[in-house]
Amino acid sequence: EAQVTQNPRYLITVTGKKLTVTCSQNMNHEYMSWYRQDPGLGLRQIYYSMNVEVTDKGDVPEGYKVSRKEKRNFPLILESPSPNQTSLYFCASSTHRTGGNTEAFFGQGTRLTVV
Amino acid sequence: SQKIEQNSEALNIQEGKTATLTCNYTNYSPAYLQWYRQDPGRGPVFLLLIRENEKEKRKERLKVTFDTTLKQSLFHITASQPADSATYLCALEYGNKLVFGAGTILRVKS
Asked: CA–CA separation, B81 vs A93, rounded Å?
């Protein structure tokens, strides 16, 4: 089954404690991205990657890091989480390198709470 | 930067009627526009993609229009059902990014 898998689904952590949210896709997609979703603000892109070892900032990259060492994996790293990073996070992938002219497949989401 | 506007107020309609949702955008002329459905706590699911040279696209009970002059897309669900109740997001290509609107909540009452 074609899917994007995120882990964990739920996470409560304390301010400053480094964490990683994993994302893996089994569709051999080139393009992967991370979004955060907050009430009233919709989905905002954090980082995206057009291929292995190619990553770039989205609209809200501050406080986040990513890496793309393998095509299937695109982890999101919060080096020093803060309460304003409490949000619902989604990983997505698509076939086309620009991500715009083919459908995006989304993961199930990770609900992160930073206290 | 690109700005996408969708009706912030929920749309409440009666079962069997046609739901029409609006997506307006500024500061850009995208080559593609997409619509997604999102259920509470779940990831968005792709519905339709329309290209700038296409005026209209249909899929079963769904229809999307794309007016590049007005910078607007309309999303229609005909013969709506309670199961269509969800948040609907429009998204467009902006450079190398896919940018989303905040979405419109649709509630279909039986």
From this structure: 30
